[in-house]
Every structure is written in C-alpha cells, then in structure tokens.
From TrEMBL:
SUPFAM superfamilies: P-loop containing nucleoside triphosphate hydrolases. CDD domains: SF2_C_RHA (cd18791). This is Putative pre-mRNA-splicing factor ATP-dependent RNA helicase DHX32. Its main location: mitochondrion. InterPro entries: DEAD-box_helicase_OB_fold, HA2_WH, Helicase-assoc_dom, Helicase_ATP-bd, P-loop_NTPase. Belongs to the DEAD box helicase family. DEAH subfamily. GO terms for cellular component: mitochondrion; spliceosomal complex. Its EC number is 3.6.4.13. Residues 714-728 have a biased composition (Basic and acidic residues).
Length: 728
C-alpha cells in the first residue's frame, strides 16, 4: 500500500505540474505569422533589435507607409534598416490580411539576399523557405506561404515579365538604391509607372545619403525618413595620394597586427584582382610572423565572384581576420561586429563601356563620398579608419549610375518586352546616353529582335525569355535550327558563368598552361570550353573528389558547378517554349561546322582578320587592331601552328587590347550568316573588300540555295553553300 501511495502521490504531483504548464501555455504570446508560441530566442533577439538605430523610427515609419505610396528611407549601413524595415512591411501587409499582397525586398548581391533572409527568419521566429524566403539566380527557397521574400534586383525584373503590375505584392522594398546598378535603376523607373495603375501598392526605397537627395528630386513630393548615422571612430588621412596605395594598405594591415591591438581589419582595394593578390601576399607574410602575435587570416570578400565571399562567422580567439574587399561590398559588413580598423585606398576600378567601339575598358578613379562615409562608420565610435588619400581631396558626391557606363542592349530588349506587357514608359533617374541607346537598338535590329516598326519581333520575344545577353540568346536559338543545341547550351552556360580558369599563381604560368593545353580543341576556345565541361561531367561519375580534380587542372570547381546549373536552367526554358534540343554530336566535322554557324548567327558583329600573319587582328566593325589574349588556346600554340586568318571572338577589352574566347571561322561561313544590311554598313577596309570579292565571285559562280544544317561529315566547310541563314 505504501508503494501504491507513493505512486499516487507522484502521479498527483505530475498532474499538478501539467496543470501549471497548461496555465502557463495559455499566457504564451503567439507568433502572428505562424500561430505558434514565440521561442526564448525570439525575445533575446528582440532586445538586440530594440538597440538598433532604426528602431526608434518604427511608429513613424508605419504611419508614413500607411499614408503614402512611395517612401524613402535614408541611412548608412549598421543602422538596421535592411533587416527591420522588411519585417515592418510584412506586419503592414498582415494588418490588411494580405488582401493587397505580400512583401518582396530586392538586393544587389546574391549573398546579401540569402543572409538577410536567414537573419530575418531568425528574428521573426519563423521557418526559412516558408514564411520567409529568397530567390536568387539558379536558386529559390520559398513556398506559397511565403509572406516576405528577399531576391536580387535582376530576379525581380524578370518576374515583372510575367507579372508586370506586381499584383502579387502589397509592398516592394528596393534596398541599396544608392549603388545605382542597372537593374535597380530600371526597377525604380518602371515602378513609378506601376504605381499609377496600382493605388494600393507601396514602394519603400532604402538608400544612403546623399543618394537619397537625388531620389527625392526624382520622385518629387514624397516623404523621406532620415536615420541617425552611427558615430564614426577616429579618421586618419594620409598627407598625399600615393600611387602605390595597394602596398601601403597591406603594410598598414601588417603594422596593425604587430601592434597587438584587438579587433579585425577591413581593407578596401580597387579591384578583384588586387583582392586576390593581397590575400596571397598577406597569407605568405603571416606565415613568417611570430606565433606570439596570434594568427592572421586573410578573408576575401567580393560578392558576385565565385569563391570570394565565404560565410562570415564569429571571430575565433587569438586570431585576427583581415577582410579584403572592393566596391559594392560595404553593406556585407552588417554581419560583422568585430571591425576595429578600416583601411581605405579611396579608389576603385570599374568597367566603362564605349558604344562607339562596342567594348569596355577598365578605369581607375576615386570612390564616391557616399562610399567613403559608409566605410568610415564600419568601425563604430571606438575604431580607427585610415584613409590613404588627403582629407581635402574632392570626391564625387554619389556613386555614378551604372546605366551610363554599361552596354544596355540587354536592357533595351527587356524594356521592349515590357512594352508588350503594357508598361510603355520607364522613368529613369538618369537617362541612358543617347548614343548608347541608339547602338543598343541598332544591335537588336541586326539580331532580328525588332520588326520594321521598331517593336519586338517574334524572335525578340523568344530571345527575351532567355536569361542571356541578346547575342548569346540569338546564337542559342540558331543552334536549334542547326542541330547543335546541346553543344551551344554548354557554350552559353560556360560563358555566362564566372570564368572556370584560375589566374596562374606567380611562377606557375607554364605549369598552368601545360594543364590547360590538355583540353584545347583545334577549332577554337569555344570548343575548348565544351571539352572542359564534358570532362568535368565525366569526373562526376568517377570515384574522385571533384574539387581535387579541379585543383589538379587549375580550374574553378564553383564556376563549373554554376555552369552546370545554368545549362540545366537554359535546357528547361528551351523545353518550355518547345524548341528542339539535338542529341550530342560533339567531335564530328558536321557538328563543328554547325556550332560555328550558330555562333555566327549571334556574334557576326565580332569578327576579326589577321592582317599580317603575326597576330594583329583587325576588327571589321570598329577598325581597331588587337591581339589574342595570352590565355587563349591560339595564344598558346601560335608559335607552333600559326594563327587563323579569320576569327570570331566573344569579347574585346580596350584596357589590354585583347580579344578573348576566339574560334576560327571561314569568310564563306561569315558571309552565309551575316545580315546583308549589316555587311553593307561595315566601314570600308581591305578586309571588307576581300569579303566583297568572295561574295561577288560566289554570286556569279553558284546558284543560291537555302542553307540546311550540315548532314554529311565528309562535306568540307569550303564546299558549303554561302546563302544567308533562314533565321535572319
């Protein structure tokens, strides 16, 4: 009985505890987004959120959002605006029971979109992929229950092709507007038109001063919420601008480490190439330093470049991290609270497009005052910022709009597509250069993307479905006619993804070239890319480590995996629009000829001729003379086999005066594929006269026949018909 009595008392005690739990559970606060009780972590994070500078503006923001269609929020990094404002917008949509839609927040970097989604899901105490999601190129993590989605600005633009009025959304948040990317500027221009037709839609633009003043001027009488900026620490300027600011920055980083002062270091250099070089130098120097100083770790932080944006974690003890970065990376430091020192070279390298030459050049110039102020505030009030330029130097106020410095042919194609969707006007903050716009429209006309009235043609509509530049899109569509779509899918993916070639380390150029020569194809670099991709895919089926395989051949594994994902995406699009995809036939003469035809269908504007047999290539369109890039297959074998007379190239860079990704073609194949009105408009030259002579001889000697995909392997390229391609 005693035992039974003890059991009864134990059961009674458990029942009382259970009753207490139920009583406590009745008082639990439920999450308004998923209906579940908040976790203890939610309340801890809530206390952290309330310390952010943006928090005290919460009530004012909600009031302005309710009463205005457009709202501008101006503040630097470290204010919390990128994490808190999207959450408040979600609460605003919830208050209306999502009658007008959910929230989307655009970012300029893939990494930023993912990191913010993960952080916001944590703060809101909900699941990533359900209530909170993200969409970046080649990766989507969301569901039908998603109420707040982070995405890159280019993803949101493509979404507008199928939903031009953004009817799925109640609030659109445009973050990092001060960076003035092409996609963000186009979004801001189109949204002004959308708001006229969607009175319930809200647009929130997050920017940094003084770019917010430009937005205010553009949008007129709209409210602007100015956030208090974090206090900057001690700012130390150099007495004069140094030509070797790169080495000055590295020496200063090493001196900081030797000083034993605690804290991580952020170094801002001019370009990605400098970031790679700096990491190698610092890693080498750190290995020579005394162990008593602690470990020095160089961390590259370059968003948008494969393998150069590692996951940021807590700083390990007795280790100092040196984050080495360049432009457009400032906002990534919201995750890092350990930055005590900032070293700013004050310069950046940007690609500037010249529409007259149809090529880009690298320009080194000062950063903007906007960027400089953001960098100074990364250390907080107790840190130090070393500016390697004089205090009285005149910096431009804002970051130059990229739409004024880029090839806007893809943008023109997109806007033509939006015209067919009912949005006929894009109110640009900075209107594109008229010469650049005319060149873009002319190029679309040459590619048969426009009809006689200047509207998007059927070909143009299909081209706009592909997330490729217009020339590559046209080449891929042509490959469906010439039975080489499988190979062109690979070429398109490899040239769209980051380069798979790793820059040769110092002293290892010969060894790297020896490894790469194993993949080289006699027809040219485009064919070499197919070889690399096919070999990479075969390595997946073998019991070997892919990353190790890539390291052995000095190839970037991440870039090849990205190419694989892009190829799968393009394949799905071709199947969706019911275009034929041929079986692989790589390695046959017939297939090689058809690949060249498909390439010429898109890249007939990028043809060059070796005028003296020594590698001086005369480009027919701009009459410039350039050399083949040293990493090209032709560059490696020129001394043995000589260079081809006529080539097609993928790109031309004015800075090093080199053409890249080069493939041999015949003048007959070029004449077969080139639109006649483009050929007539080519400037006079000896090369054009040679082509005209071939064309005249062909007209008088042979009857013109409609070209068909080559069907017999033994048929040589010279024996092919020179008629125009039917897809023109």
């Amino acid at each position: 009985m005693a035992g039974n009595s003890e059991i009864s008392e134990g059961e009674l005690k458990r029942e009382e505890e259970s009753d207490d739990l139920f009583e406590f559970g009745d008082d639990l606060e439920l999450n308004q987004f998923d209906g579940l009780p908040y976790s203890s972590r939610y309340y801890r994070l809530l206390q952290e959120r309330k310390t952010l500078r943006v928090w005290k503006y919460r009530h004012e923001f909600m009031t302005l959002l309710e009463n205005n269609q457009i709202l501008i929020v101006s503040g630097t990094t470290k204010t919390g605006k990128s994490t808190q404002i999207p959450q408040w917008c979600a609460e605003f949509c919830l208050s209306a029971q999502y009658q007008h839609g959910v929230v989307v927040c655009s970012q300029i970097q893939r990494r930023q979109a993912v990191d913010l989604a993960l952080r916001v899901a944590d703060e809101m105490d909900v699941n990533i992929g359900h209530e909170i999601g993200y969409s970046i190129p080649l990766e989507t993590c969301c569901s039908n229950d998603t109420i707040l989605r982070f995405c890159t600005d280019d993803v949101l633009l493509r979404e507008m092709m199928s939903d031009p009025m953004l009817e799925h959304y109640g609030v659109v948040v445009i973050d990092q507007a001060h960076e003035r990317t092409v996609s963000t500027d186009v979004l801001l221009g189109l949204l002004r038109e959308v708001l006229l037709q969607q009175p319930e839609l809200r647009v929130v633009v997050l920017s940094a001063p003084p770019a917010s003043d430009t937005l205010l001027t553009h949008y007129g009488n709209v409210p602007c919420l100015h956030l208090d900026a974090p206090c900057a620490g001690e700012v130390i300027h150099s007495n004069s601008s140094s030509a070797d600011s790169f080495y000055s920055a590295l020496r200063l980083a090493l001196e900081v480490h030797r000083s034993r002062e605690p804290g991580d270091v952020a170094v801002f250099l001019a370009s990605v190439q400098e970031v790679v070089c700096a990491c190698n130098i610092l890693t080498k120097e750190a290995s020579r330093m005394s162990v008593s100083l602690g470990e020095l770790i160089a961390v590259p932080l370059c968003p948008g470049h494969t393998g150069m944006c590692p996951q940021i974690t807590e700083s390990p003890q007795k280790r100092r991290r040196v984050f080495i970065s360049c432009s457009q990376s400032e906002d990534l430091f919201w995750l890092v609270d350990t930055i005590t020192f900032v070293i700013d070279t004050g310069v950046e390298k940007r690609l500037v497009y010249n529409p007259r030459v149809r090529a880009s050049s690298e320009v080194i110039r000062p950063i903007s005052k906007c960027q400089a102020e953001i960098r100074k505030r990364l250390t907080g009030s107790t840190g130090k910022c070393f500016c390697l330029y004089p205090e009285d130097v005149q910096l431009p106020a804002e970051i130059p709009p990229r739409i004024l410095e880029s090839n806007i042919t893809s943008t023109a194609l997109y806007l033509k597509r939006m015209e067919t969707a009912g949005i006929g006007h894009c109110d640009f903050i900075s209107r594109p250069d008229p010469e650049g716009l005319m060149q873009a429209l002319e190029e679309l006309d040459y590619l048969a993307a426009l009809d006689n009235d200047g509207n998007l043609s059927e070909m143009g509509i299909i081209m706009s479905e592909l997330p490729l530049d217009p020339q590559m899109a046209k080449a891929l569509l042509a490959s469906c006619e010439f039975d080489c779509a499988s190979e062109m899918l690979t070429i398109a993916a490899m040239l769209t993804a980051p380069s798979c070639f790793i820059e040769p380390p110092v002293g290892m150029v010969t060894e790297v070239m020896r490894c790469h020569v194993k993949f080289q194809h006699p027809e040219g670099d485009h064919f070499t890319l197919i070889n690399i991709y096919n070999t990479f895919k075969r390595s997946q089926k073998e019991p070997c480590d892919q990353e190790q395989w890539c390291e052995e051949y000095f190839l970037c594994c991440d870039a090849l995996q990205t190419s694989d994902a892009i190829r799968a995406q393009l394949t799905d699009i071709l199947k969706r629009i019911e275009l034929p995809i041929s079986e692989p036939a790589f390695g046959t003469k017939t297939n090689a000829l058809n690949i060249k035809r498909a390439l010429l269908a898109g890249y007939f504007m990028q043809i060059a001729r070796d005028v003296d047999g020594s590698g001086n290539y005369f480009m027919l369109l701009n009459k410039h003379v350039a050399q083949v890039h040293r990493l090209s297959g032709y560059g490696a074998k020129a001394h043995k086999l000589g260079l081809p007379e006529w080539v097609l190239f993928h790109e031309y860079n004015l800075s090093d005066n080199c053409i890249r990704t080069v493939t041999q073609i015949s003048p007959q194949a070029f004449l077969q594929m080139v639109p006649q009105y483009f050929f007539c408009n080519l400037p006079p030259s000896e090369s054009k006269e040679i082509l005209q002579h071939i064309l005249d001889r062909d007209r008088t000697g042979n009857a013109r026949t409609k070209p068909q995909p080559a069907a017999i392997e033994t048929k040589t390229e010279e024996a092919e018909s020179h008629d125009r391609c039917v897809i023109q």
